[in-house]
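Reply to dn_fold:

You asked what the input looked like. This is it:
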Amino acid sequence: MISGLLVLNKPTGVSSGNFIRKLKPIINNSKIGHSGTLDPLASGVILACIGQMTRFTNFLASEKKTYIAEMMFGFKTNTGDLDGQIIEEINFIPKISDFKKVLKNYTGIINQEAPIFSSLKYKGKPMYEYARKNKVIPKKERKIAISKIDLLSVNNNKFRILVECGKGTYIRSLVNDIALDCKSTAVLSSLKRIDSAKHHIEDAYEIDSITEHNISRKIISMGDALKCIDEIQCPPEIIDRIKKGQKIYLKGAELKSKHLRLFDKNKDFVGILNNSNGLVSPKRLISIEN
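and this is what came back:
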């Protein structure tokens, strides 16, 4: 049974789920999932988790992602991108200097309203199901983290920006909010994810290049796949105690992140630990269910 991570380059025009299911015929009976959905309009890095790696997708999903987004000024759609119906038009393109000033307001922790056409759940159903039936539901607003946002280029009414952000960020909503602050309207006209949990687009494979003969060479081991998380290596006696669910104080973990990759003395991956200033406990191990 295969377990590990494949870094793939998703093209536009296909959903994330349908895209990774193309791997099904070559992974035998292994489970498969992905970390971080990309809309059909979007392209770029998809992290395909295979086998036991599917148990760690949430750790990858919680890490930073980097996008190159193109926003097109002049109109607004009900979906926030080019796939929707035009609901408003304002023929105004901001000056580059004014646009850059607005961008400065979008770093740090900010509030963001999720688009109505999104997979967020309301009463157990995705919000897009209500939107398609024109049913009004309460707005969903939450805090998101944007660590970097820069203007890359301008071509008439198309502004390309780079966005480095945390979990749960909707670039479509970001584009809409920036346009409002510029006293205009805009849609997301293209989106490419170039980095996810420290896995870069330069290292991504085209899915058609993956075969049953080469997948073992292209798949990343679980421990290496989670390279965005600090690591710690422990002797057998400590590993045994952790596997029994015990909390242990490890001085070497004091200054490390709230989650840790645990490796044994042979540098084999054991799982993920919770870490509170050096007091560690099992969070998710590959050898036991938590």
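The mean pLDDT is 91.
Hope that clears it up.
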